[in-house]
Amino acid sequence: MKSTAQTIKNIALGTIPFLLILIIWYVFCYFNLVPGWLIPSPFQTAKAFLGLAIDGTLVHLVIISAENAVPAFIFGLVFALIMGILIGMSATAKKIFYPFLSAIYPIPSLVWLPLIILFLGFTRQTVWCVVFISCFRIIIYNVVEGVSSVSQNWILAAKNLGLSKLEIIFKVILPGSLPHILTGVRMGFASSWRSLIAAEMLVVTIGGLGKFIWMAQWAFSFEKVFAGIIVISLIGLLMERFVFGKLEKITLIRWGFIREETQLR
Fold this sequence. Notes:
Elements: H1 2-14, H2 16-30, H3 42-54, H4 57-89, H5 91-104, H6 113-120, H7 124-149, H8 152-160, H9 165-202, H10 209-218, H11 222-254, H12 260-263
Helix pairs in contact: 3-11, 4-5, 4-7, 4-9, 6-7, 7-9, 8-9, 9-10, 9-11, 10-11
């Protein structure tokens, strides 16, 4: 009962910023502080959102965007884990690859888009490359940091117990660096999701939420633009709450940072 009341309280507190934005938005539209054709009212946006949800348009768009993002994100995650563990465990590998990673990290992933289009054209593979670059360059930094933070005493103890290198990686290195890795995956997803939408706006031949918003703004259907933005936000919120948030709690409980009964309050 107590945990239910706390959950309701947390949800209520979390809705405050959204309610404030909604009120300000309504006031601007009600008093015609902005042109109606430019900023649709909350009711117009809600009507457009419900219409697109009922006829299946939004679901279709989300599926296309998932096809544009998920394969590249998974590949970027796996490659970042392999390279990150290698760099984190080997001083020589760090000297070789870390300067290169430091050089490409500040470069926005979309900067590579014109060059990628030259080789792959306006295809899904182009968007995959952008998503891969976007998530990889962030995740690998966190993997390297996590692997480097694992206590050498743990590794020495594992060697003394006769564990092989592969066993040390899976039983010591990965579990010990898991909080850092999860942080990297969370940040990498957010970065790749943003890059995906922007890439879809430019590579419009493959469709998705980005193309939908881009085409809607040229048709001056700004209620659809807002509906698309809401969907993008909702997906990010759901991933944060039900995927990354849950994984983080499980990890913290597993490694004793918090107790299970504490996180349920």
